[in-house]
Write a structure and sequence with these properties.
heterodimer; A: about 350 residues; alpha+beta; Rossmann fold; OB fold (Dihydrolipoamide Acetyltransferase, E2P); 2 domains; six-stranded mixed beta sheet; 21 strands; about 25% helix; B: about 290 residues; mainly alpha; MetI-like fold; two-stranded antiparallel ribbon; 12 helices
Chain lengths: ~350, ~290
């Protein structure tokens, strides 16, 4: 078991990249700690799968090194790395039974028949496949096939990391939950590192200890779900995480006050006033209080109220800017103008899309 | 009410029925008609029942032609199917070379059959043909007009040259449709090149291979033009396949009754063997769908 270290990794699918736009993966430094679960979250085409394939060795990075512990494995072929990978579409060997499917990785590595049989039985009972061991894998449902794909990874006792590339895309919604909890249970039992690629934030947040948010071939932030929610380091993370995402308003700063549209918003910290870059104020919809206009505060006009049963989402405009707030279900919202206020400790300031860090 | 609508639907398929009737069923019935009667000039016909059928089935001539035909198809399938798969595996998956390979592969398929025969007839000639001349210069004893083994080799090589491309193109299409994830999973499972072929590529090719085998079997079993042009069925009867023999009987000797019976038996053999291939190759497929 070892940590996986991506040392200055970059990858381009073009032979002679010039300029950062030619890179599917921009130069990055990242360490996957041993035994942790990670979710790799980002929009389609942001380089998640490229990153995964570099770890498993299906791709050799154009630049940089991959280290498992202290060993440089950059040029080591996939089959010699202690990595298993589960793909978006279940991959099974059509002509084989479930048992043969599970035994295949061990057979290829030349293990003895007794050892293979014992291991296959063990893994099958763990995955609940014992009853189906001798049926043909081709005729099973797609969630069972995906479990077999996973089983082929688990059956190898040398595996110390399992990579998942959007493994639940093809699975019925009600079975997704079952599979996900099965994965969590297996992780507790075996303690291997898991990297789970997804573009579904709920999946990422419920699954992983650490969420890695990517965009355009770059890692924007690595953090616990709470950190991503409370202190997104990049405006994109704020937008992407949360439903609805974070509100951003262009403001100008004066000490511990932000000016927006002629109105003043109180902040918890002093910001130096010489900042003349693109300054944004970020606030989660959860931290906006909505009251009647006679309470003072910022006046906004309501455009729409979505009642979700457990809470309401209020869509508002201030001048040309839109923002959303999440309010308790019982709150009465006037259909016209409202007064809003932000909790100062959750009001964040971004310069050129990056969070200005202040200690609490 | 529902039933009435169904009846009307027949009018929609009527044109197809008429077309098939004129193009296939009526000519076929004419053949059936000839096969059970003896005919003389003056449009005189006599009912002979199954006499022609038993004559053909018991004739030495038919047996030897059928034997040659089966041997020929067997050799063709044994060479072209593995060779076709092999070449398809070797064609690159992407890049400029793909179109070059595919065009080169498709070329033999675009040449009319009698031209293929003529090309090889000249190519293999000792006096002016490149192949025959070179072989003669190397002191190889080769003469396809005199030696029946040489004639067989020539015709088989010609057919392999002409038709392997079809198997290649079908297999290439089949291979291209295998998602990358299968190869990636095979790598992660540590599968060797052979295991990848045996457990991923071959199973995924099964459906196109069924088509390739059926097409190549039917075409090779009915081969006429190329051997007719190259050897004319000779030397002796060495390359007289069923179709060549049939034409000799029907047009050369004008034995219409036996030739008609011959045709029907021929047709039924092709049908039967195609069914056998299909049944064997789709056996143990179970209730699977096409995924």
């Amino acid at each position: 078991m070892a940590k996986i270290h991506l040392n200055n990794i970059a990858h381009s699918y073009q032979p002679n990249p010039n300029g950062p736009d030619d890179y599917a993966l921009k130069s990055m430094e990242h360490i996957w700690e041993d035994g942790k679960t990670y979710a790799l979250l980002g929009p389609s085409g942001c380089g998640k799968t490229t990153l995964l394939n570099i770890i498993s060795g299906l791709l050799t990075p154009s630049e940089g090194h991959v280290l498992f512990g202290d060993d440089d494995v950059t040029s080591l072929p996939t089959e010699e790395r202690n990595i298993a990978q589960v793909f978006q579409f279940p991959v099974i060997y059509d002509t084989m039974s479930v048992r043969q499917n599970l035994a295949f990785p061990l057979k290829n590595r030349g293990e003895s028949v007794e050892a293979i049989n014992a291991r296959v039985e063990e893994i099958a009972s763990m995955l609940g496949l014992t009853d189906q061991l001798d049926s043909r894998a081709l005729n099973l449902s797609s969630d069972a096939k995906q479990i077999i794909s996973l089983g082929r990874g688990l059956v190898r006792d040398d595996v110390n990391a399992i990579l998942f590339d959007e493994p639940l895309t093809m699975i019925d919604p009600h079975k997704k939950w079952l599979l996900r909890s099965k994965l969590k249970k297996l992780h507790q039992e075996f303690g291997f590192t898991m990297v789970y690629v997804t573009h579904d934030q709920t999946e990422a947040m419920t699954f992983a200890d650490h969420v890695v948010v990517m965009k355009d071939g770059e890692i924007l932030q690595v953090g616990t779900p709470k950190e991503l929610f409370e202190r997104p380091r990049h405006t994109f993370v704020g937008h992407f995480i949360g439903s609805p995402g974070m509100n951003f308003l262009p403001v100008s700063l004066e000490g511990n006050k932000a000016k927006f549209n002629g109105q003043t918003i109180k902040l918890n910290h002093d910001y130096s006033t010489d900042i003349s870059d693109n300054i944004m104020l970020g606030i989660r919809p959860e931290y906006i209080a909505v009251t009647t206009p006679d309470n003072g505060g910022i006046i906004a006009s309501v455009t729409n109220v979505e009642d979700l049963g457990k809470h309401k989402i209020v869509r508002m405009t201030i001048g040309d800017h839109t923002l959303s707030a999440i309010v308790p279900e019982e709150t009465e919202i006037s259909t016209n103008e409202v007064s809003i206020s932000f909790t100062p400790e959750n009001t964040l300031i971004y310069r050129n899309n990056l969070l200005i860090e202040k200690d609490k | 009410m529902q039933k009435k609508l169904n009846q009307k639907a027949w009018f929609l398929v009527l044109p197809v029925f008429l077309l098939v009737a004129f193009s296939a069923i009526i000519p076929l019935m004419t053949v059936v008609n000839y096969s059970v009667q003896d005919s003389f000039g003056n449009n005189e016909f006599f009912w002979v029942g199954a006499e022609w059928f038993s004559e053909i089935l018991n004739s030495e001539r038919f047996h030897s032609a059928l034997g040659r035909q089966l041997l020929f198809s067997a050799i063709i399938l044994l060479i072209e199917i593995p060779l076709g798969i092999f070449i398809a595996l070797k064609i690159p998956k992407q890049g400029w070379a793909v179109s070059l390979c595919l065009v080169l592969m498709a070329l033999p398929l675009l040449i009319p059959w009698n031209v293929v025969g003529t090309i090889w007839q000249i190519f293999a000639r000792e006096d002016i043909g490149l192949l025959g001349y070179v072989l003669a210069a190397l002191d190889v004893d080769y003469n396809y007009t005199q030696n029946s083994t040489d004639a067989w080799i020539t015709i088989i090589i010609m057919d392999v040259w002409h038709w392997t491309s079809l198997v290649v193109l079908l297999c290439y299409a089949g291979l291209s449709s295998i998602p990358d994830a299968y190869y990636q999973a095979a790598k992660i499972d540590g599968a060797s090149r052979w295991a990848t072929f045996r457990y991923i590529q071959l199973p995924k090719l099964k459906r196109v291979l069924l088509i390739a085998v059926l097409l190549r079997f039917m075409d090779s079993f009915m081969i006429y033009t190329e051997p007719f042009v190259v050897t004319g069925g000779g030397p002796g009867n060495a390359t007289t396949f069923l179709s060549i023999d049939l034409v000799k009987m029907a047009i050369g000797q004008f034995d219409l009754g036996p030739a008609a019976a011959f045709s029907l038996i021929y047709f039924l053999i092709v049908l039967l063997l195609s069914w056998v291939f299909y049944t064997i190759m789709t056996a143990n497929e179970g209730k699977t769908n096409q995924s």
